[in-house]
Specification:
Bound molecules: zinc ion
Number of helices: 3
Number of strands: 7
Number of domains: 1
CATH superfamily: Cytidine Deaminase, domain 2
CATH class: Alpha Beta
GO molecular function, one term: metalloexopeptidase activity
EC number: 3.4.17.-
Largest sheet: 7 strands, mixed, barrel
Structural class: alpha/beta
Order of helices and strands: EHEEHEHEEE
Distance between the termini: 22 Å
Helix content: 10-25%
GO biological process, one term: proteolysis
Protein name: CysO-cysteine peptidase
CATH topology: Cytidine Deaminase, domain 2
InterPro entries: JAB_dom_prok, JAMM/MPN+_dom, MPN, VirAsm_ModProt
Length: about 150
Protein backbone atom coordinates (compact mmCIF):
# COMPACT_ATOMS: atom_id res chain seq x y z
CA UNK A 1 0.00 0.00 0.00
CA UNK A 2 1.48 3.31 -1.01
CA UNK A 3 -1.38 5.65 -0.24
CA UNK A 4 0.29 8.65 1.36
CA UNK A 5 -2.70 9.67 3.41
CA UNK A 6 -2.88 6.44 5.36
CA UNK A 7 -1.88 7.16 8.93
CA UNK A 8 0.49 4.63 10.46
CA UNK A 9 1.57 6.63 13.47
CA UNK A 10 -0.06 8.65 16.19
CA UNK A 11 1.54 11.32 18.35
CA UNK A 12 0.73 11.00 22.03
CA UNK A 13 2.58 12.27 25.07
CA UNK A 14 3.42 9.91 27.90
CA UNK A 15 1.38 12.17 30.19
CA UNK A 16 -1.73 11.60 28.06
CA UNK A 17 -1.14 7.85 28.13
CA UNK A 18 -0.74 8.00 31.90
CA UNK A 19 -4.05 9.88 32.28
CA UNK A 20 -5.85 7.24 30.20
CA UNK A 21 -4.25 4.38 32.13
CA UNK A 22 -5.08 6.01 35.47
CA UNK A 23 -8.74 6.50 34.49
CA UNK A 24 -9.07 2.91 33.26
CA UNK A 25 -7.42 1.55 36.40
CA UNK A 26 -9.63 3.70 38.61
CA UNK A 27 -12.84 2.40 36.98
CA UNK A 28 -11.78 -1.24 37.11
CA UNK A 29 -13.55 -3.73 37.28
CA UNK A 30 -15.89 -1.68 35.09
CA UNK A 31 -14.93 -0.64 31.58
CA UNK A 32 -13.77 2.95 31.34
CA UNK A 33 -14.11 5.19 28.30
CA UNK A 34 -13.23 8.67 27.18
CA UNK A 35 -12.75 10.91 24.20
CA UNK A 36 -9.44 11.82 22.55
CA UNK A 37 -8.82 15.45 21.60
CA UNK A 38 -6.17 16.56 19.16
CA UNK A 39 -5.61 16.92 15.43
CA UNK A 40 -4.84 14.72 12.44
CA UNK A 41 -1.32 14.05 13.74
CA UNK A 42 -2.36 12.70 17.05
CA UNK A 43 -3.86 12.94 20.48
CA UNK A 44 -2.99 15.89 22.68
CA UNK A 45 -5.57 15.36 25.44
CA UNK A 46 -7.64 12.61 26.97
CA UNK A 47 -11.13 13.56 28.13
CA UNK A 48 -12.54 10.95 30.56
CA UNK A 49 -16.26 10.28 30.19
CA UNK A 50 -18.64 8.24 32.30
CA UNK A 51 -19.54 4.78 31.04
CA UNK A 52 -23.31 5.03 30.95
CA UNK A 53 -23.54 1.24 30.71
CA UNK A 54 -21.63 0.79 33.98
CA UNK A 55 -20.51 -2.56 32.69
CA UNK A 56 -17.40 -4.73 32.76
CA UNK A 57 -18.15 -5.84 29.21
CA UNK A 58 -19.40 -2.85 27.21
CA UNK A 59 -19.12 0.91 27.23
CA UNK A 60 -21.50 3.68 26.22
CA UNK A 61 -19.90 7.08 26.60
CA UNK A 62 -22.29 9.36 28.49
CA UNK A 63 -23.78 11.70 25.84
CA UNK A 64 -23.54 14.77 28.10
CA UNK A 65 -19.86 14.03 28.71
CA UNK A 66 -19.28 13.55 24.98
CA UNK A 67 -20.91 16.94 24.36
CA UNK A 68 -18.63 18.49 27.01
CA UNK A 69 -15.61 16.89 25.35
CA UNK A 70 -16.62 18.42 22.01
CA UNK A 71 -17.08 21.84 23.61
CA UNK A 72 -13.69 21.56 25.28
CA UNK A 73 -12.08 20.62 21.98
CA UNK A 74 -13.67 23.52 20.10
CA UNK A 75 -12.72 26.02 22.80
CA UNK A 76 -9.08 24.96 22.43
CA UNK A 77 -9.01 24.84 18.66
CA UNK A 78 -8.84 21.05 18.72
CA UNK A 79 -11.05 18.30 17.36
CA UNK A 80 -12.42 15.09 18.81
CA UNK A 81 -10.09 12.65 17.09
CA UNK A 82 -10.95 9.37 18.75
CA UNK A 83 -12.08 7.39 21.71
CA UNK A 84 -10.44 5.20 24.33
CA UNK A 85 -11.82 2.40 26.44
CA UNK A 86 -10.58 -0.43 28.59
CA UNK A 87 -10.85 -4.17 28.28
CA UNK A 88 -10.96 -5.60 31.78
CA UNK A 89 -10.55 -9.21 30.78
CA UNK A 90 -9.26 -9.34 27.20
CA UNK A 91 -6.46 -8.14 24.97
CA UNK A 92 -5.68 -4.54 24.04
CA UNK A 93 -7.21 -5.10 20.61
CA UNK A 94 -10.58 -3.95 19.23
CA UNK A 95 -13.29 -6.56 19.74
CA UNK A 96 -15.67 -7.47 16.89
CA UNK A 97 -18.21 -5.18 18.59
CA UNK A 98 -15.68 -2.34 18.73
CA UNK A 99 -14.98 -2.78 15.02
CA UNK A 100 -18.67 -2.96 14.11
CA UNK A 101 -19.46 0.17 16.12
CA UNK A 102 -16.41 2.25 15.14
CA UNK A 103 -18.04 5.53 14.13
CA UNK A 104 -15.32 7.30 12.16
CA UNK A 105 -12.57 6.01 9.83
CA UNK A 106 -10.37 9.02 10.62
CA UNK A 107 -10.46 8.44 14.39
CA UNK A 108 -7.83 6.98 16.67
CA UNK A 109 -9.06 4.05 18.74
CA UNK A 110 -7.09 3.49 21.94
CA UNK A 111 -7.70 0.22 23.77
CA UNK A 112 -6.29 -0.47 27.23
CA UNK A 113 -6.07 -4.01 28.56
CA UNK A 114 -6.22 -4.58 32.29
CA UNK A 115 -6.33 -8.36 31.90
CA UNK A 116 -2.82 -8.74 33.30
CA UNK A 117 -1.02 -7.03 36.18
CA UNK A 118 0.79 -4.70 33.79
CA UNK A 119 -1.71 -2.54 31.90
CA UNK A 120 -1.23 -2.35 28.15
CA UNK A 121 -2.25 0.55 25.88
CA UNK A 122 -2.40 0.29 22.09
CA UNK A 123 -3.82 2.52 19.38
CA UNK A 124 -5.59 1.54 16.18
CA UNK A 125 -7.27 2.86 13.08
CA UNK A 126 -10.51 1.11 12.09
CA UNK A 127 -11.56 1.59 8.48
CA UNK A 128 -14.14 -0.47 6.62
CA UNK A 129 -13.93 -3.17 9.27
CA UNK A 130 -10.13 -3.34 8.95
CA UNK A 131 -8.02 -2.82 12.07
CA UNK A 132 -4.57 -1.27 11.70
CA UNK A 133 -2.30 -0.78 14.69
CA UNK A 134 -0.66 2.65 14.89
CA UNK A 135 2.77 3.22 16.34
CA UNK A 136 2.67 5.68 19.22
CA UNK A 137 5.31 8.40 19.11
CA UNK A 138 6.18 11.14 21.55
CA UNK A 139 5.69 14.57 19.95
CA UNK A 140 8.52 17.09 20.10
CA UNK A 141 7.65 20.55 21.48
CA UNK A 142 7.71 21.76 17.86
CA UNK A 143 5.09 19.19 16.98
CA UNK A 144 7.45 16.92 15.06
CA UNK A 145 8.14 13.34 15.96
CA UNK A 146 11.21 12.12 17.80
CA UNK A 147 12.90 9.69 15.46
ZN1 LIG B 1 -13.68 -2.97 23.38
Amino acid sequence: MSVGTLVTMVEMQTLTRDIILAHCTQEYPLEACGMLLGDERGVSQAYPTRNEARSARIFVADPADVASARESAVSQGLNVVGVYHSHTNSEAFPSPTDVAQAPDPSWFYVVVSLARPLAELRCFAIRDGMVTELMIGEPEPSGGLVS
